[in-house]
Amino acid sequence: AAMREMYLYGATLTTSDLGVLILAGSTLGGGTVVNYSTSFKTPRHVLEQWREVSGIEAFASGEFDEHLDIAAERIGVNTDSSAAGKRDEIVETGLKQLGWHVDMMPRAVRGCSQDESCGYCGFGCRVGAKQSTTRVYLQDAFDAGARLIVGADVERVTFSDGRATGVVGSVGPHRLAVNARAVISAAGAIETPALLLRSKLGGQVGHNLHLHPGTAAWGIFDEDVHIWEGTLQARYSNEFRHWDGGWGPILETVPVHPGAWSMAMSWRSAAHHRTLMKHYAKVGFCGALPRDSTSGRVRIGRDGRPRVDYRLGDGDERRIAEGVAQAARVIEAAGARKVYSMQKQMPSYVPGASGGYDRWVQETKRLGYARGAATLASYHQMGSCRMGTDPSSSAIDADNETHEVTNLFVVDASAFPTASGVNPMLTVYGIAHRAATKIADRLA
């Protein structure tokens, strides 16, 4: 029920070539309700690039950092709530065995139980520890008198003389019209450009989409792992972030519900699938998510719904392949007895067998990861209405206002000038806080 009701299109949205599954929140509070609470500050090298790409000095001058810090304090970012469950212990053990970087995840939680029940927080936090916008900023707004309308389907923005004047849409069978002095779209990097395109905006709207696609190496262990349990995310490694000038992968692991794992496994036959699922309790894995340079696009179909075009570029495919090869080393070092990739053909090797790892790496690279060759998932969509001073290369300006229409603002991950390369929640909060400050000053 949570997948159907709390995820965008019931977690069935994919790129047009079926190459990447797109997972995004679609409930009151959006992705912050169902995400894993991970709260990285935007890396310095990314902010420097954002300044160059966008022409916005605030990204590198320290101004943006101030808003990140304010947001981090408000949502309670800490590393005191990062107790590693078995799933993360495996990754940490493997990284330490190899002498690679490993650290605790900064997380936006207060009073987190950090036990086996935490693995289900992808369906919403049952103890209320996750500091989602529902519990923080939307609660602030409600306490200040804001009216929240849930279940609304916003069709388009209304305009008069080049200025945004409100929105129209529906709530169930009822029509909805809201008149406003300013309109702010915070619908995410898929639905925000779709809304603006339905509202007849053009230019760079929908361009420059990044999906941060990830996959994994996984293995079967002697002991139970229970990858559906434990702290959502507790350990990570940026050992390879420096690749190609800052486009390398971050290594992470996430909780995986049995339904999701069964869907991720390549289908050969009922008997083969059943055999794989019998090992589910003993599965451990290490994910690899390179910072993608591939630039996709969001369009709308005849029904007004988004269509996502994204074909993984050669550089990103190579970095995914190399990242998976390193992820395999991590779980092998942690004691995996057999190691697989998430590719359709499911190549595997037995650690310790002569030449097994090298042959497996070559086979995974030969099979590839693009155009449906492997299970790729996007938890982080960004960049489809990017910020910039030049309307020919951006959709919104330095104050998050659209270049085409005044008093229409975009305040979500679609504003990113390029991919962040890390879990983007805190970056989104920073952009939102900075934009909200400027919008409030203008309206005052």
Question: In short, what is this structure?
Answer:
With 444 residues, the protein is of the alpha+beta class. 31% of the residues lie in helices and 17% in strands.
Describe this protein with a few key phrases.
alpha+beta, three-stranded antiparallel beta sheet, 14 helices, 444 residues, single chain, 17% strand
How would you describe the overall organization of this protein?
The chain is of the alpha+beta class and about 450 residues long. Helix content is about 30%, strand content about 15%. The protein is built from 14 helices and 18 strands. It has helices spanning about 1-5, 30-35, 45-55, 60, 65-75, 85-100, 135-145, 190-200, 245, 260-265, 270-280, 315-335, 355-365, 425-444; strands at about 20, 75-80, 105, 105-110, 150-160, 165-170, 175-180, 185, 215-220, 235, 250, 285-290, 295-300, 305-310, 340, 350, 375-380, 410. The strands form seven sheets. Strands 11-12-9-15-16 form a five-stranded antiparallel sheet. Strands 5-6-7 form a three-stranded antiparallel sheet. The longest helix is centred in the C-terminal third of the chain and has 20 residues, at about 315-335. The mean pLDDT is about 95.
Number of strands: 18
- How many angstroms does the end-to-end distance come to? 42 Å
| Sequence of strands across the biggest β-sheet | 11-12-9-15-16
What is the share of helical residues? 25-40%
Molecular shape: globular
Helix tally equals 14
Structural class: alpha+beta
- Strand portion, in percent? 15-25%
How many strands, what sense, and barrel or not for the largest sheet?
5 strands, antiparallel
Poorly predicted ranges: none
Mean pLDDT: 96
Radius of gyration: 22 Å
